[in-house]
Here is the input.
Amino acid sequence: MASTPTTNTQGIVFKNLSRYEKRSRVKDIVASIVVHTSGIAAIVVLFFIFVFLAKDALPTFTKVGILKFLIGTSWQPEFEKFGILPLLVGSLFVTFGALVVAVPIGIACAVYIAEVSPPSFRSLLKVIVELLAGIPSVVFGFIGLMILAPLVQKVFELPTGLTALTGAVTLAFMSMPTIISVSEDAITAVPKSYSDGSLALGATKWETIRHVVIPSAKSGIVAACLLGMGRAIGETMAVLMVTGNASILPKGLVGLPNFFLGPVRTMTATIASDMGETVQGSTHYNALFAIGLTLFAISFAVNMAADLILRRGGLGKE
Amino acid sequence: MLVSVPVSISEAQSPQPRWNAASECVCGKVEVEDLSLFYGTFQALRNVSISIPECAVLALIGPSGCGKSSFLRCINRLNDLIPGARTTGRVLLDGKNVYDPDVDAFLLRKRVGMVFQQPNPFPKSIFENVAYGPRIHGVKNKSELADIVERSLRRAALWDEVKDDVYKPALALSGGQQQRLCIARALAVEPEILLMDEPCSALDPISTGRIEELICSLKEDYTIVIVTHNMQQASRISDYTGFFLMGELIEFGESAQIFTRPKDKRTEDYVTGRFG
Amino acid sequence: MISRNQTEKLAFATVALASLVVVLPALVIIGFLAAKGAFAISWSFLTQMPKNGMREGGIMPAIVGTLYLVAGTLVFAVPLGVFAAIYLAEYAPQSTLRRIVRLSIVNLAGVPSVVYGLFGYGLFVVTLHFGKSILAGSLTLAFLILPVVIAASEEAVRSVPKSFREGSLALGATRWQTIWRVVLPNAAGGIITGVVIGVGRAAGETAPIMFTAAAFFLPKLPSSPLSDCMALPYHLYVVASEMFDAPLSMQWGTALTLLMLVTAMNLVAALIRARFRRAKCW
Here is the structure.
């Protein structure tokens, strides 16, 4: 062992490295390059998604015209009409319908899991929420088709159960796991000292939750709703299967209830159902990519907003 | 076992200046000249110059946050890994500045071992913990590894306690045993210098006593720099003592002198303040 | 006027009820699938080729196709995801680049799956001439689950105590030796858990493989990575929504098989997580 007090004054420079050690330095450098490349790959993938969408989407804007595409009121590929307004409205209606159901229930459930439920129950609930999150969207669509649609048809006495409402309810259950788990994280992250302070002042547990815990977790809860919205607006298969896929616009405000109880078509469902029927390079094909680009832009905006809110609330990853 | 070159205590306590081929003054094993350390804009060390004598124990004392640990990490360049950390000045190991561009920091760390405040064995077996160092430096031969493991564990005074179960998980050992394992792990790569960052602060008095004994026996072969908060410990085991305050080396000298006749008022305050 | 205590009771009852509204449908869905699907699933259903235009026979090629797709996804997503996670957790300084990488991953996680499908079609099927194939589908799915794998792996790598790294580096180990021999073995549990969850997600996705890999009806097993294949989720969509006369047993049977496959993967992930948590002793 190192016992002889050596005086090899150059013993720590590169040229003293053994072959094995030289090899391990080379490995270290190679690994560093691979790791950096992989990290940067995330940027490249995102950029590629944008490029490959844009490449096939851009011809739409010359062939159809950007305004006609964005605010055209009719999507009828067989008549060369490529206005995405009905699809956009369909997506937004189904999404907001879903959020109206999912947000209150999701937040309440998160509050229950984080603050109210007995501990043994808590882990069971979390497992069930995870289970719900793990069900594939096509299975949700299938269940919506087999169970929910007939129910809606019977209750509202409709000609078909495949309606915006059916889609909204199905989507509500699909976005709930996201809303619940992100809100629950935010609520759990509120320091115990906050609620202790409130309880010490004589507030009841509920008053503490309402006036101290939830306000402190507000940014996380808002982000949870945004992420749930992102999930709902991008959801494809379930909506494709249960909304009936008719591209129509509501007839004014009075027409809203009927619109909600009738079939609609969303942007995602349009891509999924039409891609198989288009000719590569046709206007229809380009228009579908343009819808994809629109969806990409929406999801980009929603995610950036959620990230910003989370970061400002101090709940971000960093 | 170790081929130990006898070094008499008196010689270690009054190191004679030696001159190497480059006719550069080498007064100690490690010669620190005008070392400053910055973390971003915060200056952690201010123009520290110190000579660390060979085969002796140097204790570094001072209040928390005074830069003792940062100083240790300058010697083996462990500060390199902290983003924003940079140094000025020189740290000469046997006359070679460890911050020179042709120095391989990994090779440097092989020659300058380190033991941390919290025992930090890997969650592997005792054997694998000690064999880790030799393995990463290219030792593959099984019997050679076994040999190194046994020698290192013996040198760290742990062999007799664990020889029957070297394949048991290291984390099953007691805190004091874990720390001696970490010392054995450091010894296994044959360092010349051992840096110890408050190695006993997480241990009970009995384990502390055993580590102190071990340190006293190790100084025959190794140059040891130990950071400690415990001034009794410093006076018991060290030959030299350096007192740090706010990133500055206030006073450096033989331990007996520092603890009985400190020259600087601040050293005196600190040394006596704790003991009353 | 109701008292504060009554308000509290009312509020707690409300949130408990909301939880019931979440739990009940989940159990109903699973109960329905189990009850109706159990009768449809048999050994021959799982191991036979579909016959008579998918009105009879089994779903073996769909199961096999999904397994191939999942295997391909693993091959591409795991190395890239784990390396990217190591970049974020170990290499990236607090720089602008790191921030951009992180934001990219956040955004990748939010891109709708059907958009991944379009992207995969444009890049792999058309531009790289892979055609509609297992290879193109696997690559598309790999990118889809990349954010999941990265997030889980990064957390796992970060959870390895700093003292282990310092212990290794202080012995003269290089950064990569430290990662390979100390960090990764101790992060393995979290990484595997994340990978399995990601794979479970990939197995259930339909939209990304519709244009890149999945065949409507193909009563034979795929012969190479460049051939297309049937897949369980797409098959379920086909028999439930595209065909008008698929027997109910075929529909429920496919749905239950898919759910069991995905749930099995999630269960495996949960077990691995629990096992590694118990073994972890720092």
In short: Residues 43 and 176 of chain B are 34 Å apart (CA to CA). Chain B has a mean pLDDT of 85.
